[in-house]
Specification:
single chain, about 550 residues, alpha+beta, Rossmann fold, six-stranded antiparallel β-sheet, extended
Length: about 550
């Protein structure tokens, strides 16, 4: 048996050898010479083609260091670049330990090198502080964090400050040659993280004195999607902003750092300088830090004045916990592609009393009644002559209503003049089952009842304009003061100020739930903007939804 197996293996090896020799005679040539860059482009493209297990597996595969090394080797062979020409070793380099000194020559381009430097406090040496993912230094694989820079283009860096090194790079032509003493030999994890977050605050590095290097930081706006590619540093993460067309990563404040901003955390003598080949692109000025800033009424039947204004800092950073101060940071998201068989996403409209949520909802339904619908509310009051069951309200007994409360079937409910009123989950599901876009108006604190993969709510915050525009656009407007629609009155100055206070409070406490913020100055313009935005949800473009929805989604058989 062993002889038979050995003979079979030898036969197979002989056949393979003959086939390879035959193939070698054809002198095959490479199809292309840039497999590594194509793999990087493929990784970017895959982000917008669903988030299935196959896509995750492929992204993980092409992001592994061994696979990247294989592609770089392929490109070297394709270009017949077997023996790279290195510059001659300087004579004084022999003074150092031969195994601890290396000479790195990089071609100068318009892009930054993608590395930051700082001065080691204990030794006074200039060391590489960070390597930015996707930059020239990262792609070369020749410069690493912790490496000590001894010379730049033959100029010694001894007793020099980081800011004095930048002109040496700016005035160099063709290539830049570094003399480096390698730092720590620990293996660096270069695998690509498949973590995406939506920013819940605005960030401008030019207004942040705590950032180690302003040129290495990434500016972003609230709502932007970032790919987190490095979390080795507890205070500064590396991230890419999707849609900016650049594969380079930059610094963004971590959750821990951003949460400490309100404590006025200042970094003293801890600045890193960007190694960049562009002239006059560095500023040393530190500026003051500025923290980032049914077609009926909802069943929030009581109006409480919020005349007492909170301090500015608490208004910016307030949370759902009374008295707590906690900033919004990031929420993990994943790409979602709506399939033709998928139901429409639930549209949740929120805003302060009197801002015009109900008017926008009414206009949407009137514009396309076959497309938009509203859930029919439940109530325990008696049906009136002109009302219809299931059209105006679902009229139920007090016992039945309270049983629904105990079974958690209400998104929101309340009492008015001794009667219950509420928005029921079953009513929302009926509208969605009809293939319509369900419009729901609730208080943001109740969104948690529909914030699931089943409803996939798209939350629109309707915000009032500045008080001057409010006075101009609402000077003749009237609004309903009670559920029966019997009391109607004009807006007062107190109503305007209360509307602005409520809007600020809602934004500070629940802004992390908002997908869209619309300022309702002119209602006709706002309606067109809202309608166009809602219609985009049915287009085949990628939508970013909370990762928790996909984790909790039921598995299909």
């Amino acid at each position: 048996l062993l002889y038979s197996v050995k003979h079979s293996v030898q036969s197979v090896n002989k056949i393979i050898h003959e086939r390879l020799k035959r193939f070698e005679k054809r002198r095959p040539g490479p199809v292309q010479q840039h497999a590594a860059s194509l793999a990087s482009q493929l990784a970017e493209e895959l982000l917008y083609h669903g988030w299935r297990d196959e896509v995750k597996e492929l992204l993980t595969l092409i992001s592994k260091p061994h696979f990247k090394s294989l592609l770089r080797t392929h490109d070297s062979v394709a270009k017949r670049d077997f023996e790279p020409a290195l510059p001659p070793l300087p004579d004084d380099a022999m003074e150092e330990d031969e195994e601890s000194v290396k000479i790195v020559s990089l071609v100068k381009t318009k892009e930054p090198l993608g590395a930051t430097i700082k001065k080691d406090k204990s030794t006074g040496a200039i060391v590489v502080a960070r390597i930015m993912r996707g930059g020239s230094a990262d792609k070369s694989g020749l410069i690493h964090e912790g490496d000590e820079l001894k010379e730049v283009n033959g100029v010694s860096l001894e007793h020099r400050k980081p800011k004095e090194i930048l002109p040496l790079l700016a005035c160099s032509e063709g290539a830049v040659k570094f003399k480096i003493i390698p730092g720590s030999t620990k293996e660096v994890n270069n695998s690509l993280l498949l973590v995406f977050v939506r920013a819940l605050f605005d960030y401008d590095p030019t207004e942040d004195p705590t950032v180690p290097c302003k040129d290495a930081a990434v500016a972003f706006k609230r709502g932007d999607v970032l790919q987190i590619v490095g979390t080795d540093d507890d205070t500064w993460w590396q991230a890419r902003r999707l849609g900016d067309g650049s594969g380079r990563a930059g610094l963004v404040p971590s959750k821990q750092l951003h949460k400490s901003v309100y404590r006025r955390f200042w970094v003293s003598e801890k600045y890193e300088f960007m190694l960049c080949f562009r002239l006059n692109s560095y500023k040393e000025t530190v500026v003051g830090f500025i923290p980032p800033a049914g077609l009926r009424r909802s069943f929030r039947l009581g109006r409480k004045s919020s005349r007492a204004r909170k301090p500015a800092q608490l208004r910016r950073w307030s949370s759902e916990t009374p008295g707590a101060v906690c900033p919004r940071t990031y929420i993990e998201v994943v790409p979602y592609h709506k399939e033709p068989k998928d139901r429409h996403r639930l549209i949740v409209l929120v805003g302060p009393s009197g801002v015009g949520v109900n008017e926008l909802k009414r206009r949407l339904v009137i514009s396309e009644p076959d497309r938009y619908g509203v859930s029919v509310p439940y109530t325990t009051r008696k049906k009136r002559r002109q009302e219809s069951e299931g059209l105006d309200y679902h009229f139920v007994s007090v016992q039945a209503f309270e049983e629904l409360i105990l079974n958690h079937r209400f998104v929101e409910y309340g009492q008015y003049r001794g009667n219950y009123y509420g928005s029921n989950l079953d009513s929302v599901q009926r509208v969605m089952a009809e293939g319509k876009v369900c419009l729901l108006d609730v208080h943001p604190s109740k969104i948690k009842h529909v914030y699931t993969s089943e409803f996939k709510p798209y939350v629109v915050f309707v915000k009032p304009p500045m008080i001057e525009e409010l006075r101009l656009t609402r000077r003749r407007a009237k609004f309903v003061c009670d559920e029966d629609g019997m009391q109607v009155r004009m807006f007062s100055e107190e109503d305007f100020e209360e509307m602005l206070d409520q809007a600020e409070m809602l934004d500070s406490q629940y802004g992390h739930l908002f997908d869209k913020v619309i300022v309702n100055g002119d209602v006709a313009t706002t309606f067109r903007e809202l309608k166009a935005d809602v219609e985009k949800l049915d287009e085949p473009e990628v939508q970013w939804v909370p990762a928790a929805w996909m984790r909790s989604a039921p598995t299909k058989a």
